[in-house]
Records
---
Amino acid sequence: MLDYRYFNSIAIPPTITSLMVIWVLCGQFLFHQGSLIQLYPLLLLFPLVILSHLYLIIISHGFKRFDMAFFGLIHGLLSFVVWTFAIMFSNGQSI
């Protein structure tokens, strides 16, 4: 029997990365550029991605642990790029 909780937990890191992009795009209409209200959640989202990948590695068994580590490495690097550009986009010309 399939454990759907495991399959749902695989979607957590990409969902958090998607929330980063949605937060920045919606925040441009709600807040002014360089707003700390827009910046502080962004600073919390990337560590959440890393922690969720570590959680996936811990709950995996056998060779799936290697698969989750590889998924965490690739998605972590891509999420870092998205996170960096999201912070730059949210700050705009406020520096």
---
Amino acid sequence: MKSFIKKSFFSLIFFIAVISIVLLWTNAHIELLKINWILFALACFLFLFSVFVWLVSWAFLIRKKATVSYQNLFIVGFSSLYGALTPVQLGAEALRSMKLKSFFKIPYDESISASMIAKGTKFIILAIFFVFILLFFISKAKLDSTAFFALLSGFFVIAIAILFFVLPLSRRCGSAITSFLRFFSKDIPLFASIEKFFFSYSKNLRNLTLKSFAVVLLVSLISYFFEFLAFQFSFFSVDIKIDFVPLLVLFVIISVIERTPFLPRGIGLVEFVGLTFLSIPWFVNEQLSLPEIGAVLIAFDFVRLVIPTVFSLLIAALFKIEIKE
């Protein structure tokens, strides 16, 4: 547990460094001094509520295998949120699984399977939106190699996750992947653990009814809706209003960048890509000043990173959910 706190702490240090650069480069303080704190607080609430909604789908899947109350699952879920300050947010999933194992004796394979299914549905939604945006919007923008590579790496993670999620639906594909992992497990012990998990995950996924899948998919879509509202109110808080379509496009792009496997939550790349797109007049249908762009990027960074991390640590401390390593 302490190692995840340290990783989150170092991620926040890195975040502060990035924010400082954005602040100095754009003079964002000019606009941040005029921030509407009520709208900013609403953006923070909407983001946390989007997490709550996603936890509903995760808890729904957990309760199919274990008799744990929703209240306890929400406490575990929120108290593990600070672990999301890791590449692809894997730390949060690891913390949830560790706590479920420690407090409720739920096996790792079951808890991780639930997380994979819940995340898989969200990745499917994101991938559909991103492909549409890739065809109609990004192709028109002149991106440098850094921005293009960031988008490509983020989408690669999403694509792999979707394949990992979808292929086991076929018993034949699931068996082929399991055999592939078993072959490498003879020489690499890590693959033995992965094989065991994948076998359990495939079984749990095939046992998922169409109705349950539809519920998880719908809840994931609702979660994205509130996350998008949080993004929109981050703009409102610094008195910036852009059209719905470019706002949605940028939201999806940032959601993809967040999944890049090289940086925690895409810190640094999100700001760079956001600055790139918001500086394109035809994209936002108006000319935004550098201070305005810097202000909204910093505001949303606090909404998506700082506030959830602080809230998570407070929940963990309040309910004394602590696991000794």
---
Amino acid sequence: MELGLILLLCALIAVVTVLRAAQSIRHHKDDERGSEPGTGYHEVEANYHSGGGGGGQSYTFKVPRDPQEYAKQFIPRKRRK
């Protein structure tokens, strides 16, 4: 009897998990990641903190909003025209 109850509970947990995953996928289906392409730049901030000593660094850099301009940054300078 105990084995049957355990199997039933496992099956119920699996069904609830699958239904919850399907609900989450449907809910976030139309959400777009990233941002719209355009002109100008995004400003990105990167922080690093090491341990309890409070040391670390902070960087801020600009990333072009235009995908073509962004891709050109990965071409070595010698090969750019």
